[in-house]
Amino acid sequence: xxxxxxxxxxxxxxxxxxxxxxxxxxxxxxxxxxxxxxxxxxxxxxxxxxxxxxxxxxxxxxxxxxxxxxxxxxxxxxxxxxxxxxxxxxxxxxxxxxxxxxxxxxxxxxxxxxxxxxxxxxxxxxxxxxxxxxxxxxxxxxxxxxxxxxxxxxxxxxxxxxxxxxxxxxxxxxxxxxxxxxxxxxxxxxxxxxxxxxxxxxxxxxxxxxxxxxxxxxxxxxxxxxxxxxxxxxxxxxxxxxxxxxxxxxxxxxxxxxxxxxxxxxxxxxxxxxxxxxxxxxxxxxxxxxxxxxxxxxxxxxxxxxxxxxxxxxxxxxxxxxxxxxxxxxxxxxxxxxxxxxxxxxxxxxxxxxxxxxxxxxxxxxxxxxxxxxxxxx
Length: 378
Known about the structure:
There is one protein chain. The chain is an alpha/beta fold. It folds into two domains: about 15-175 and about 345-360, Rossmann fold, CATH 3.40.50.2000; about 175-340, 3-Layer(aba) Sandwich (Rossmann fold). About 35% of the residues lie in helices and about 15% in strands. It contains twelve helices and 15 strands. The chain has a seven-stranded parallel beta sheet, with helices on both faces. α1 packs across α12 and α6 packs across α10. The protein is elongated, with a radius of gyration of 22 Å. The two termini are about 40 Å apart. The model is unreliable at about 1-30 and about 365-378 (pLDDT under 50).
């Protein structure tokens, strides 16, 4: 077992929910139950699953000790967890039961299904509640609670049976800071002065090149802000013929920059919901058919402009779309209002409230509060 802060070999470890360090069990030490979080990240699986889990872990660390379960090959998750000071286990999933005390609850958020069946069966045999988070009903699991914050209905062939199910964008887990920006007044200027571009955490080189070429053809002198993502694909080496003079990369305070921007161009994943929450008028492109399902539904409800597949994006058509939306201030106001109506940014609060209830009801868990699904103490 490896832990992000590098403990000695752990015999009967306890997890301090405040510092998230691992230490040997000492007489009189408080027995704080852990929350196991199974997730994954990478260029193929994306980074939204890990991001959601990190947000929930932050919200829940006052009542439990989160322990992330990741694959040994998942260097992407391990790097972010280590940098954030979070504890994680990257050994064989089936061996963790003999290495660690039973958790109070297990949270699953990943498209990778390997080992999940055995994990869920063992948890159920020990009376441990299991919660799973899904996108569009993908990777259906026989867990006690399922949560799907997607805008579109699930695409799985059969409903998730024998589960308590929560669905809808009110359960989309976003950084709570976005929820606070959601409550602030959003200014929609007569002309677009700044554009925020977030095309996901993986290798988005070919999409960024097309978007930035469209920006150059637009010839409008708006400030352009790009989010570089989580992997190095040559962001700083984009050739001069592609990179506009008024463009810059930003990796800090991106929630505030998104809220302050007059227009957002994103992929169809978590970043699209973030723009909706902020009320920043959204143009969205898709990486695959699943993202296109989301974007098509959002466009049908008037909450975004559908740019179609990123592979097929034509820079000249993007330039024309930018000119159209730039001159249509009322259209941008409608996008802002409808986006905010769909996503209020309180999903993390609601989902963490659901997890708290499961922690409280778990056998032998010393719960001193009662929580409802809104996350409010009652």
